[in-house]
Write a structure and sequence with these properties.
CATH topology of the largest domain: Aspartate Aminotransferase, domain 2
Oligomer: single chain
Distance between the termini: 37 Å
Number of domains: 2
CATH superfamily of the largest domain: Type I PLP-dependent aspartate aminotransferase-like (Major domain)
Shape: globular
Number of helices: 14
CATH class of the largest domain: Alpha Beta
Strand order of the largest sheet: 4-12-11-10-7-5-6
Largest sheet: 7 strands, mixed
Radius of gyration: 22 Å
Number of strands: 17
Structural class: alpha/beta
Strand content: 15-25%
Helix content: 25-40%
Bound molecules: pyridoxal-5'-phosphate
Length: 465
């Protein structure tokens, strides 16, 4: 069967995510639907042999390329032993080993792992646990959460409520709990000539004021460290994380760090929280913060199976540990909690971090991404090219000097998307922001090609018809 017939069958019954389905309709659809037959490394292939370079790692999950032979081998072996068992009342080898290793590689002090099967659920777990901790600790007045403007934490009702991305949130606003949203340290908004660090420090004042005023009713602050990915790959200086950690401790509020998109090497270190510099310069202090909760998912299984973990500190775990009759237990559950196959894929992924040292090789790839997009930095419709490790984002605007965005109805990003597809590259912009988030197995030649196609796509998208 060819592409055409798969598309027809898909459109008959599959409701695709994050899509106006009508965009797929007709002979020349706004948004072409691409049936994928197979994938290998950084490449996807359709039913007619067309290949697409997966420059967004299939929604930021696929860090070691598709069907990595080692992950495939480990998964096959796991299937021969244990497919699935519920994690309540039972335990198994892969979840034990994975928990041990996650505790070793995450910031010191995160000693307890609670499992879920997608990022949004891991966020729900952190929110519920934080609230429940304060309840168990005799502080029932703590019921609110603080999040940054332009943040994204997933799309189940709790996670959606905490986030601040209008496109996803506004429709459901009547259903959602109301967090306190504080202006983001996003450095795209910095003043002319102002440094990233200076801007992020300055923006922290909003957070300090909010905590000072509302600490008694706040359970936790939640942030995406360094990069607000779904919010258009907006980036900020790590000093903000250091200041936030200090302030949360001082005000008696939890800190939840959402590493779902940026964890597992994406920003150049294994976790983005590791970039936070020491606050005082009086020697000895190492960089990196320990949050009270860290949520991870996406890259965790190398993009093969759904899995998420909320890690927390032992002190928080202890607040739930009591005689059954005290009713303090955390009773949250998902059917597939700690699925052995997904845990095996995660273990294989951690092995690959040790064996292939991607954090080292990514430095060269990241530099190449930067140098190969040089001409976009003086493009008349590019306000900013920004990068953090293996994320590079290109902000397309109508007017560079005023940073005047293109109206979203013009769907400039969609033009870039279609152009890139016609050249065999999968680039799926977020509004007017074109970005790369390639798998770490991408080759230098593929990076060159990706950048070339991205430049063409920007020209195509910003050309006035
Ligand atoms: C993707 C994402 C989520 C949600 O994860 P899902 O698995 O899609 O539910 C939450 N937070 C961030 C930062 C994300 O990028």
């Amino acid at each position: 069967m060819n592409n055409e017939s798969w598309i027809r069958r898909s459109l008959a019954h599959v409701w695709h995510p994050c899509t106006q389905m009508r965009d797929h309709a007709g002979a020349a659809p706004e948004l072409p639907l691409i049936p994928v037959r197979s994938a290998e490394g950084a490449w996807l292939e359709d039913f007619e042999g067309n290949r697409y370079l997966d420059a967004v790692s299939s929604w930021w999950t696929n860090i070691f390329g598709h069907r990595h032979p080692y992950i495939v081998e480990q998964l096959k072996a796991q299937l021969d032993t244990l497919d699935h068992v519920m994690l309540a009342g039972f335990t198994h080898e892969t979840v034990i080993e994975l928990s041990e290793r996650l505790v070793q590689i995450t910031p010191p002090g995160l000693d307890r792992c609670f499992y879920a099967d997608n990022g949004s659920s891991a966020i729900e777990v952190a929110l519920k646990m934080s609230f429940h901790y304060w309840l168990n600790a005799g502080r029932p007045g703590k019921t609110r959460f603080v999040a940054l403007s332009n943040s994204y934490h997933g799309e189940t009702l709790g996670a959606l409520a905490i986030g601040h991305t209008g496109l996803y949130r506004d429709t459901y606003a009547p259903l959602l709990l109301e967090p306190i949203h504080v202006p983001s340290p996003d450095c795209y908004e910095r003043g002319v000539g102002q440094s990233w660090e200076d801007h992020s420090r300055q923006q922290f004042q909003w957070m300090e004021d909010t905590l000072a005023r509302h600490a008694d009713e706040i359970c936790a602050v939640i942030v995406e460290p360094l990069v607000q990915c779904a919010g258009g790959m907006r980036m900020y200086h790590p000093i903000y994380l250091s200041m936030l950690r200090e302030a949360c401790t001082r005000h008696g509020v939890h800190l939840i760090v959402d590493e779902i998109a940026v964890g597992f090497g994406r920003t150049g270190r294994l976790f983005a929280s590791e970039w936070a510099p020491p606050l005082s310069r009086d020697g000895g202090a190492e960089s990196g913060i320990t949050p009270d909760f860290m949520c991870i998912s996406k890259g965790l299984t190398g993009g093969t199976l759904p899995l998420a973990v909320t890690l927390t500190r032992d002190e928080i775990y202890q607040a739930f540990y009591a005689d059954y009759r005290e009713g303090k237990a955390f009773l949250h559950s998902h059917s597939y909690t700690g699925n052995p196959l997904a845990c095996r894929a995660a273990l294989a992924t951690l092995d690959l971090f040790e064996r292939e040292k991607p954090l080292l090789s990514n430095r060269m790839l990241a530099q190449l991404m930067w140098s190969q997009t040089a001409e976009l930095r003086s493009h008349p419709h590019v306000a900013e090219v920004r990068q953090q490790g293996m994320i590079l984002a290109i902000e397309m605007v109508r007017n560079v000097h005023r940073k005047e965005p293109y109206p979203s109805e013009e769907r400039r990003g969609l033009r870039a998307y279609r152009h890139a597809l016609s050249r065999g590259v999968l680039l799926r912009p977020l509004g007017n922001v074109l970005y790369f988030m390639p798998p770490y197995v991408i080759t230098p030649r593929e990076v060159e090609r990706l950048c070339q196609v991205a430049i063409e796509a920007v020209n195509e998208a910003t050309r006035d018809a």
